[in-house]
Amino acid sequence: MRFTKSVPLVALLSVSAAAGGVSISQNVEAGDRCRHVRAHVHTTLVSAGCQSPVGICTTGTVDGGPFEGATTFLTLNAAPSAGMPGTEPAANLSYSGTFTVTQRSGTFVASDLGVLDPGHAAFTEMTRSVSGTGRFENPTGTLFISGQIVENNTAFDGFITGELCTDRGDD
Fold first, then answer.
1. Residue 64 to residue 44: CA distance in whole angstroms
2. Could you give the CA distance from residue 107 to residue 41 in angstroms, rounded to a whole number?
3. 72 strand-pairing partners
4. Cα 16 from chain centroid?
5. CA 22, CA 166: separation in Å to the nearest integer?
6. 29 with 21: CB under 8 angstroms?
7. Which of 9, 38, 100, 106 could form a disulfide with 136 if both were Cys (CB 3.0 to 4.6 A apart)?
8. Which helix H or strand E contains 73, and what residues bound it?
9. What pairs with residue 61 in β-bridges?
10. Is 0.85 surpassed by the pTM of this model?
11. pLDDT of 9-23, one tens digit each?
12. Handedness of CA 22, 26, 31, 32 (dihedral sign)
């Protein structure tokens, strides 16, 4: 009786091992086109040429990793109190927008969702790949940007981390 009951368990373990083998080969294939990202980013608030519906734009630079280049951020929407009035201070801001990195070898565009906390001089963002050209063709992956509000609340200094996958791999 015990042997009969253990056969389904053995079958389940065999199926799990086979599924794990598929998963491993998928990860190896994805690994050829993916790379871990860790880079420094510094941006400054700008008003000239800002076409944000809420009037918040930045320009800056990324130093290191595949994103070495110039950045722009266009805020599309924002909510005071991080969208939670009564819970968060009015100065805290949740926002969404478009984050773009431009370099000679291509352009990376992402949808960005973040929270700004001026009381603690901190910000954090989740950046989801949307599109790209050149070395950033067909990007996938989620990046995270976190850091400090600096220069009298007019600039942001932080790090981008996460994984970026593109058709061109480590190109």
1. 18
2. 16
3. 59, 100
4. 32
5. 21
6. no
7. 106
8. strand 69-80
9. 42, 70
10. no
11. 333 333 333 333 333
12. positive
